[in-house]
Amino acid sequence: MSDYIIQMLNITKDFPGIRANDNITLELKRGEIHALLGENGAGKSTLMSILFGLYQAEEGKILKDGREVHVKDPNDANALGIGMVHQHFKLVHNFTVLENIVLGVETTKSGMLRMEEARQKVMALSQQYGLLIQPDALISDITVGMQQRVEILKMLYRDNEILIFDEPTAVLTPQEIEELMRIMRSLAAEGKSILFITHKLAEIMAVADRCSVLRKGKYIGTVNVKDSSAQQLAEMMVGRKVDFKVQKDKAQPGASALRVKDLTVEGHGGKKAVNKVSFDVRKGEIVCIAGIDGNGQSELVYAITGLMPSAGDILLNDGHIDHHSIRKRNQAGLAHIPEDRHKHGLVLDYDLQQNLSLKRYTTGEMQRHGFIRFDRVRAYADKLIAQFDIRSGQGADTVTRSMSGGNQQKAIIAREIDINPEVLVAVQPTRGLDVGAMLYIHEQLVRVRDEGKAVLLISLELDEVFQLADRILVIYEGEIVAELDPTVTTPQELGLYMSGSKRQEVHA
């Protein structure tokens, strides 16, 4: 029997205008966690989509246990014991957890569903792997971390022995990431073979046995993780030396740009999602709101940006914007990098140039007598694509849905920063970005600050919080419970405030 459970040999895949995979070979050993590392748009997800049967390669072959196999669609993949958790989960939101897990492989008798048998198997798997779930909860009502457990249980329910995780930690809190790492180790110990697509070097160092690196669609090499370092992997990924820390001078804050007073947002079941929150963000500083996901950050941002009704005062440069429409808030100088890029950041079926011009197409620069000047739109898009290194197969004409998650994120950031806002609200701005792109975005946020603008950053990444923040506000159960100076605060102390174990009197 072959040492390798899966071999992808000399895989080549083309899309219009781009070669996504160029003669790539990847070999997965039994019972190992094998990381696939690369920048945004390097071809990682494409390669795994070929293995899962979502795409067909132009050249190359796939071997399982040393024998060639043909994976024409995901049903073929499942039959071969291959499962995949996608970066954007494939769940039916108005179905229950249990219904989503068994969908497509339902147990039936005489044409009737046998859900009790399915429930017993699901709950047994849930206990075995420590994947605690609520089987009767609707997907729309559970957290992102819980949704991921559902996706993992879908694979285990189908008895998959080869598990593909595509950017599995992109939407998880630090605590959920730790839990996922534990689950992956226990799956590998059970004999499962795991392919783990990521660009988070710390996670590779923590959990992977080997790591293969792709760069611009080409295979660079495979290393044993224990014999390597994060720095080495980063250099293999981007092809140059990488500085992990953004360089920034001490902040020189000026007058208040954004002022929030007694802001309250209603939550579910009569509970307040945000409860009388007051703070300000001054020109020339980055204020970070830190907290465990689900403590009111999203609702706070929705209220400030106009996506959700609220009570209280929101002032931009001393002018009230709390009753303004979203567009009027934008015109007043508010920009927003949203948490959910698909829901609030992009029109996925528009092309890249249309998405990049969404904040400017109503201006005199891009209109004449009410008609859009498409030559101006195109020139503007080309400028941003070059400036922010947005990679896509057909440049400005690329349909945004077809782009990698990281390049979609870069497009949003380019659009929001380029309007030169007075206040930039950035929610998880580097989610899904590789180390090179992450550093670039951090530099952009610092540049916005240094130009005398205000930045409100919401991040779950503690490294990011400590790198960028001039002040940290901690949110817990919808209230600001601490204001901290990142130069004298430790991650451990911040964690205590985030978990509600400590609090201070905070005065806005």
Structural features, described:
This protein is an alpha/beta fold and 508 residues long. A six-stranded mixed β-sheet has the order 6-9-10-3-11-12, sandwiched between helices. Helix 14 runs parallel beside helix 15. The longest helix is centred in the middle third of the chain and has 16 residues, at 174-189. It is globular and about 70 Å long. The relative contact order is 0.11.
Please outline the helices and strands.
Layout: E1 4-15, E2 18-29, E3 33-37, H1 44-51, E4 59-64, E5 67-69, H2 74-79, E6 82-85, H3 97-102, E7 108-109, E8 112-113, H4 115-129, H5 144-157, E9 162-166, H6 174-189, E10 193-198, H7 201-207, E11 210-215, E12 218-224, H8 230-238, E13 256-266, E14 272-282, E15 285-290, H9 297-305, E16 311-316, E17 319-320, H10 326-332, E18 334-337, H11 341-345, H12 352-356, E19 367-368, E20 371-372, H13 374-387, H14 405-418, E21 423-427, H15 435-450, E22 454-458, H16 462-468, E23 471-476, E24 479-484, H17 491-498
Parallel strand pairs: 3-10, 3-11, 6-9, 9-10, 15-22, 15-23, 18-21, 21-22
Antiparallel strand pairs: 1-2, 1-4, 4-5, 7-8, 11-12, 13-14, 13-16, 16-17, 19-20, 23-24
Mean pLDDT: 88
- Strand line-up of the largest beta sheet: 6-9-10-3-11-12
CATH architecture of the largest domain: 3-Layer(aba) Sandwich
DSSP summary, beta strand count: 24
Query: Please, what is the CATH homologous superfamily of the largest domain?
Result: P-loop containing nucleotide triphosphate hydrolases
Distance between the termini: 67 Å
Number of domains as seen in the coordinates: 3
Helix content range of the residues, please? 25-40%
> How much β-strand is present in the residues?
25-35%
Structural shape:
globular
- The top-level CATH class of the largest domain is Alpha Beta
Class from secondary-structure proportions: alpha/beta
Quaternary structure state of the chains depicted? single chain
Low-confidence stretches: none
